[in-house]
Amino acid sequence: MKNRKLVMIPGPTPVVRSIQDQMGRETVAFGDPDFVKDFKEVIGDLKDIFKTEGEAFVVAGTGTLAMEMGIANITKESYDVLVVSHGFFGDRYVELCQRKGLKVDVLKSEWGTIVPVEEIEKKLKEKNYKAITVTHVDTSTGICAPLAEIGEVVKKFEDTLLVVDGVCATAAEPEYLDEMGIDVLITGSQKAFGVAPGLAIVLAGPKALERRKSLGTIRDYYIDFEKWIPIMRDPAKYFGTPPVNLIWALKESLRIMKEEGIENRYKRHIRVARAMQAALEELGFTLLAEREHRAVTLSNVLYMDGIEDGEFRKVLAEEGVVVAGGLGAYAGKMFRLGHMGNIDFHDLVSTISAIERTLYRLGIKDVLGKGVGKLAEELLK
Ligand SMILES: *Cc1c(COP(=O)(O)O)cnc(C)c1O
């Protein structure tokens, strides 16, 4: 018998039945009064949950489009921008900003570590940076940036807007825009929201909206805040066709979030991550990210000697769990395991058990039950 495939990559994450059902509904006109009401509620909920007096934008696209939207609306050519990079997705902002004609300085860390906050502060004093980008959780390394501290530092610089890439963090790691000094938060639907891929989600605080206004006409069209603001305030209006079923799916995801309570959701993610990480270490793996800055949304797991990446992931898939490979210099040396969104105890036990069976089949015989035992022990604490 074939095992069902549990998708434990860092996005798309498992989509629960009630969210899938929203995508299977009969599509209605985007002007349908019931849909307009639902869309309005989605926008209101996003602003409430992530606490901003600014604006929320939900458009068809991916996290990368959200990244582009985030920076395009607060900068113009030749502005100085600082990119803090903890890996592959931090680096993505470098090219993205350069293509827009921005003058980009980069602070990079060794993969698995952070750029110290003091270094960021020192750098910000050097120039009049108009924006700084920080990846909250870099999916390539499993590092979580100390966002609250960075926010406090950036607040001291009047002209510098803080753009946070929350694609692998939002809805799992705390992000409250106005109180944390986040001016723009960008994310996507397929990671900790647990919705299928296809939505770019951007939240802009009051300072970011002011900056957008002061820029006049910008070069970008589809991602221009000014084009979308009338629609986000009154979704009966039209600019580009909203992805009706995905917006319903997001609405269901937000309902689940409100039912759980966002603070409880953050705490659950910590508990799950620490238990999964303890179980993986119990099995003899090591984790790339330094312990103090480990993400709760995924684990970046280094292989022990004698385990080959391609074979490990092939056998693991046969055992019913799909994980992602390493990026950059860690390709072939590491796998990436997502544990975010709407997953439960069953998913976690199945995942660790499948990893044990995989190791067993690859010749490491003394693992069966070890990781699962550790996992349960941690989760029952
Ligand atoms: C996945 C991811 C992205 C890119 O999102 P896409 O939806 O694939 O375009 C950007 N940043 C981070 C941190 C991510 O994890």
Structure description:
This protein is an alpha/beta fold. The protein has two domains: 6-13 and 262-379, Aspartate Aminotransferase, domain 1 (Alpha-Beta Complex); 17-260, Aspartate Aminotransferase, domain 2 (3-Layer(aba) Sandwich). 42% of the residues lie in helices and 16% in strands. It has 14 helices and 15 strands. The protein has helices spanning 17-23, 33-49, 63-72, 88-99, 117-124, 147-155, 177-180, 206-214, 225-233, 244-260, 262-282, 309-318, 345-361, 370-379, and strands spanning 6-7, 55-60, 80-85, 103-108, 131-135, 137-138, 143-144, 161-165, 184-188, 199-204, 286-287, 298-302, 321-322, 324-325, 334-338. A seven-stranded mixed beta sheet has the order 2-10-9-8-5-3-4, with helices on both faces. A four-stranded antiparallel beta sheet has the order 11-12-15-14, with helices on one face. A two-stranded parallel ribbon has the order 1-13. A hairpin with an 8-residue loop joins β14 and β15. The longest helix has 21 residues, at 262-282. The mean pLDDT is 98. This is Aspartate aminotransferase. One of its GO terms (molecular function) is alanine-glyoxylate transaminase activity. Keywords: Aminotransferase, Pyridoxal phosphate, Transferase. Pfam families: Aminotran_5. Its cofactor is pyridoxal 5'-phosphate.
